Amino acid sequence: MSFTKLKAARQAKHSYSYVTPTSQHSESSASANSSSALPSEALTPEPEPQLVEPAKIIVHEDGGAKLYTSLPSYLEIRTSPTSGRGLWTTRGCSAVILIYFCAGQVLLAAKPHAAALSNDRLGQHCSQCFGVGAKRCTKCQIVFYCDSACQTLDWPLHKHECAALERIAASGETALPSDAIRCLGRILWGRRRAGVASVWTREIDGLQSHTTTATSQSQSQLHTHLALALVRYLGLSSPAEIAAFGIESGRELAALVSKFTTNTFTLTDPALAPLGAGVAPSIALINHACEPNAVVVVPRASSAFASTFVKGEGDKNADARAKMEPLMQVVALRDIGAGEEILTAYIDTTLPREQRRAALRETYHFECECALCGPSSSGTATSPGTKITDGGEVDPRSSVWCPKQCGGTCPAPTDDIPLSRCVKCRAPLHKTDEVLDAVRVGCEALEKAGTLQFTDPDYALRLTTNLLPILSSAGLTPGAHPLLGLARLHSALLIAGLASQPGSSQSATPAGPSTPAPPPPTAADAQASLDAAIRAAAQVVAGLDMVLRYGHPVRGIARAELGRLLAVDEPAPNVPAAGAGAPASVLSSSSAAVSSSSPLASSSSILTPSNPAVLRTEPPRFPPSGAPRLRLALDTLVRARAELLIGFGVANEGGAVGREVREDIVRIERELGVWRKALGEGIKDAKDLEKGKMGRS
Ligand SMILES: C[S@@+](CC[C@H](N)C(=O)[O-])C[C@H]1O[C@@H](n2cnc3c(N)ncnc32)[C@H](O)[C@@H]1O
């Protein structure tokens, strides 16, 4: 270790904590997983940690007002020379290492200081709680609320927003300002309302900015564009008028815009579709890692968790609970020990190293040196974008199957380092050019299909359909970029296609009288489309399993999607009926004789990354039909729920999707009971028939 690094490490150890230590020890809990490794003192059952206890936190700044009041006492702010302030779990007892949090525990919850729906969601969601928007603001005719309570709650800010939106409409401008501009507007109106000395404003002012850091040209242009658009949106005739909001100069405005771009979260719905933008200063204290130990989600809190959050102000009142939404929550993805830094991912961590680092550099202005990226990590960088860990594993984001199909993988070749070999059997990869070409055209297609997915979904689907086999036959693993990205897009397009098929309850565009309705799909077409969507969803699950930690919400949602597709009623059983006396598909399922140990009964075996070596010897029939399909759906949904409980929080029952999946599981179990009963009766009938025949002869 160099002297500078040693000094930095020592400084980090002594870094100043803003948090006055409180009675954290009594609030810690030992993880069940870790108990066997702990000395006896640690085995004494500890009370469950109070998950959200805003009143107890004491955070001083300049000896003044309490800031970050949503921080619970088991989290503290520390600074490090490399990443600035960050959130850490408080250190436990000195002699005993206690696991503070288990995977799936909610570490922190906060309602954003300001949030704005994206333009395409404004007409569907409530602008206050982000639930379903049922009533439109009669003045601006743009913003919706679920009820008058939400409208009243939002009025102090919306009255300014309403006037701004009306002014824009009156000017003949047809395009609405983006969610970034509308959110910045809400920050400024909120600032004026709260006052510059308020805790609210000081927390916003305390956000990190990057105005002094050298930015890329596109970033500076973005900041300038946002600042100018904001001034216009606020109806100011000159930047100087911004002083009314406690912003004294153009430089301060630029700093605010930089704080916004550095600290804003994309707020998502419970299925992780983007809803809009929000700023929550306490959650924005968390630093980044490409292999995070926590995740920020907006799961729509369970009523039990919501009651904890609104303690003292109507915990029994469902309305009061709904009003605290959108509630951003930081959930532990794995067990987190005392004195550990909480880290979340700012970017898509399914991307390979170079792309992740470029995205972080561009928007957040730092070089990522996390365990997955940095040269100081345990892994050995073998080529840009490719890493082999000490355990001899290749980063699946840039991996190709072994050319000898031994089951191992090779680092994907790059232009700089084209030579590669299997880490397991050392077989050299010969088809380097084919892989490089496939990756290049795959990246281009992914970008194009991503841009066109909403405007020309048919073209986007043709692109993904054509490219996926090319990437697979070049040997890319399901977790490799851009195969995984294309597979995700392909799956989304196929599922959207199913939803808009004529006859579907979610049909998007009913055919009008002037457009002749397309012929309804035959049962076989519908079956083929459904099966194709299932195969695509299964490929996505296999890829995500390779690159994301167990319990990551993206994995949970993808698995839930697959389970639900498998649970869709089959339009036409695709296994010919055999025998008489029992429903055809019941008999077909009995003839398949799927036991719980059979590969067909377990989604895990089917969803194992499709190593060609395995496929060639025993191609599984996928998806199965009849009862095996339903059993596979059940198995997949049970596994999805287990992951959703982690990713969206146990206290939230896995979020809104986790709660729905639980209901699906109950329904399928009931349905399988009916199948089993019918199967039992079919077998009994067949036996009686046989006995009768024998008796007669
Ligand atoms: C949302 S803020 C996180 C809190 C911030 N550290 C602070 O002091 O307020 C994001 C900024 O933190 C810094 N940061 C976050 N994660 C980092 C990391 N892994 N390495 C270096 N800097 C990091 C970067 O400057 C980034 O723009």
UniProtKB/TrEMBL annotation:
Keywords: Metal-binding, Zinc, Zinc-finger. Residues 17-47, 503-526, 598-627 are annotated as: Disordered. It comes from the Eukaryota. Residues 73-347 form the SET domain. Pfam families: SET (PF00856), zf-MYND (PF01753). GO terms for cellular component: nucleus. Residues 513-522 have a biased composition (Pro residues). Residues 26-43, 503-512, 598-613 have a biased composition (Low complexity). PROSITE patterns: SET (PS50280), ZF_MYND_2 (PS50865). One of its GO terms (molecular function) is zinc ion binding. SUPFAM superfamilies: HIT/MYND zinc finger-like, SET domain. InterPro entries: H3K4_H4K5_MeTrfase (IPR050869), SET_dom (IPR001214), SET_dom_sf (IPR046341), Znf_MYND (IPR002893). Transmembrane segments: none annotated. Residues 126-162 form the MYND-type domain. This is SET domain-containing protein. It comes from Mycena alexandri.
